[in-house]
Design brief:
Layout: H1 12-17, H2 22-36, H3 40-58, E1 65-69, H4 71-81, H5 83-103, E2 109-125, E3 134-152, E4 159-173, E5 176-192, H6 201-268, H7 273-308, E6 318-322, H8 335-345, H9 347-368, E7 373-387, H10 390-399, E8 403-412, H11 418-485, H12 491-526, H13 529-532
Parallel strand pairs: 1-6
Antiparallel strand pairs: 2-3, 3-4, 4-5, 5-7, 7-8
Helix pairs in contact: 4-6, 5-6, 6-7, 6-9, 6-12, 8-11, 9-11, 11-12
Length: 544
């Protein structure tokens, strides 16, 4: 009877088939030893060239530079570099320049003129004593020079025209030569009595531009406060991410320690293999959560850098080392006082009030435009006529021997005047709408302050609760760990308590950073964020 061969028994052929695969590689290495033991100078050159290559590549990599920065440092840099803030400053500058340009409407204008003309005419005269008509011819050469200063005043639309004229006329008339020089100088005043008296167009444009400039200043203040609040929020988010990394590192250390202890107990038979697998799974989960924490910290860091610096390419290798001790002090709250502060200090509410004032100017102007036009025109001056030369004419003007004056009125009634009436009604409707918008803004601010104060109070209570929960979780884990060491518990229970402790620590960190953010939100709702950080407000126009 044939015996069954054991498949695991190695034959000579099988031994050759199962020869370790590293033997050919080892043989090739031995054969290469003489070549490797060649000229040592060549080996040194090879090393030097390798070092040079490494040096060239390392020069392309810039080391990360850590920069310790406190919250005030980040805010100061953001106020200087933030692009949104710089854009808002230029908007404020444009509004200020527009207001300055509107005031230029009161600048006088100088008008100069010179004119030369020639006329030739023919006509008939009574003629001779015999009654025969005779033909007359007139040739005239004239020179005229004018100069004047015109402009508007701030007194109820009063305008002025100070002008002077000088000219000469020479030629022949019926073969008789003539040459005469004239001059005049006078002042004309035009005063609106109805339309343009209470709200002149120039005053309307200047007042509107100035109010818009003030509104732009308040918009800049609002942007400054929102930028400071955004920096503060991003800074606290970075602190929270950094503390979360520390919590996750502690959780990973606990999980790895438990996994190592459980594996050792399995090896000596005092624990089950399932316990070791559960502990290893917890350690792997802790490593994954630590990676997530690092990723969240990188995002928070980049968010803060984007607010603080204007050119990310120049700070690509800069790492902000946020310096802050996560131990906030309690902020006292008073909803009524905070509401009063919000109504008085918030730039958005003050800007809406200015917009309502601007709309009031619009209403007054549009109402005035519905009136008829009644203008009083007054003029006075001196003249010189039929003088021989310009010096004679100017001397005559100086002597004021030929004064003159004029007075009159012009009255214009627009028939229908539907366009002006419609513009007035539209201005009234817009004023009422803006009044309601202001009221809504004030009510929303009061509600926002109420919610912020309530959130701040409950946030402080949450800090106390999470601190107690974290302390209890630490005590529970320590007690259960002792029971596990004495064989009175299982790794599963310890794993659960480790997860509970990690959750409690994260909740405490979240409560602390949330309280800081809530305090910032209350200051923003009150309009006192800049005073809270002792910042001097600068809303002056920037250089374009």
């Amino acid at each position: 009877m044939n015996k069954m061969k054991n498949p695991h028994t190695a034959s000579p052929l099988g031994a050759r088939a199962t020869r370790p695969r590293f033997l050919p590689a080892l043989l090739a290495a031995c054969l290469a030893l003489p070549a490797l033991a060649g000229d040592p100078i060549d080996s040194i050159d090879s090393i030097d060239s390798t070092d040079s290559l490494v040096t060239r590549h390392s020069s392309l990599v810039t080391a990360v530079v850590e920069r310790p920065m406190a919250l005030d440092d980040c805010i100061a840099l953001a106020l200087e570099n933030n692009l949104d803030l710089r854009i808002q400053r230029l908007t404020r500058t444009a509004a200020a320049i527009d207001a300055e340009g509107a005031s230029g409407a009161y600048d006088p204008s100088l008008a100069l003129g010179a004119k030369r003309s020639r006329t030739e005419t023919e006509g008939t005269a009574a003629g001779t004593s015999e009654g025969v008509l005779s033909t007359t011819r007139t040739e005239t050469d004239e020179n005229a020079f004018t100069a004047g200063i015109q402009g508007d005043t701030s007194f109820h639309g009063l305008s002025y025209d100070l002008s002077a004229r000088a000219g000469d006329s020479s030629g022949t008339r019926a073969d008789n030569p003539f040459d005469t020089t004239t001059a005049s100088a006078g002042l004309t005043l035009t005063q609106p009595l109805l339309r343009g008296f209470k709200t002149p167009a120039t005053h309307y444009r200047i007042a509107t531009a100035r109010t818009l400039s003030d509104e732009a200043a308040l918009a800049l203040e609002q942007k400054i406060q929102s930028t400071v609040a955004a920096v503060e929020t991003a800074f606290y988010a970075l602190i929270q991410a950094r503390e979360t990394i520390a919590v996750r590192e502690k959780a990973l250390a606990l999980a790895e320690q438990l996994a190592a202890d459980t594996e050792r107990k399995v090896s000596v038979g005092t624990a089950f293999a399932l316990d070791a697998r559960q502990a290893a799974s917890q350690a792997a989960t802790a490593r994954a959560e630590l990676s997530d924490a690092h990723r969240a910290a990188a995002v928070a860091h980049n968010d803060l850098k984007s607010l603080v610096f204007a050119d990310q390419r120049t700070v690509r290798n800069l790492r902000i080392d946020a310096r802050y001790t996560l131990d906030p002090a309690r902020v006292p709250t008073d909803p009524a006082a905070s509401g009063d502060l919000a109504l008085d200090l918030r730039p958005d509410i003050r800007a809406q009030r200015l917009a309502l004032v601007r709309q009031g100017i619009e209403v007054d102007y549009r109402r005035n435009q519905t009136l008829p036009s009644l203008d009083l025109v007054l003029g006075a001056g001196v003249a010189a006529s039929d003088e021989d030369t310009y010096p004679d004419a100017f001397s005559q003007l100086a002597s004021a021997d030929e004064p003159y004056w004029t007075a009159g009125v012009t009255f214009t009634i627009p028939l229908g005047n539907r366009a002006a009436s419609a513009a007035h009604r539209q201005a009234l409707a817009n004023a009422e709408r803006m009044r309601l918008e202001l009221r809504r803004l004030e009510e929303n601010a009061l509600v926002e302050v109420e919610n912020a104060t309530a959130a701040l109070d409950t946030g402080w209570e949450k800090i106390a609760a999470t601190r107690e929960a974290r302390a209890c979780a630490e005590d529970a884990l320590a007690a259960e760990q002792k029971k596990l060491d004495s064989g009175q518990s299982t790794p599963f229970v310890v794993l659960q308590l480790q997860r509970d402790l990690t959750t409690a620590r994260q909740s405490e960190i979240a409560a602390l950073t949330d309280y800081l953010r809530l305090a910032s939100a209350l200051s923003l709702a009150e309009g006192t964020l800049l005073q809270r950080h002792h910042l001097d407000l600068d809303t002056s126009p920037a250089e374009p």
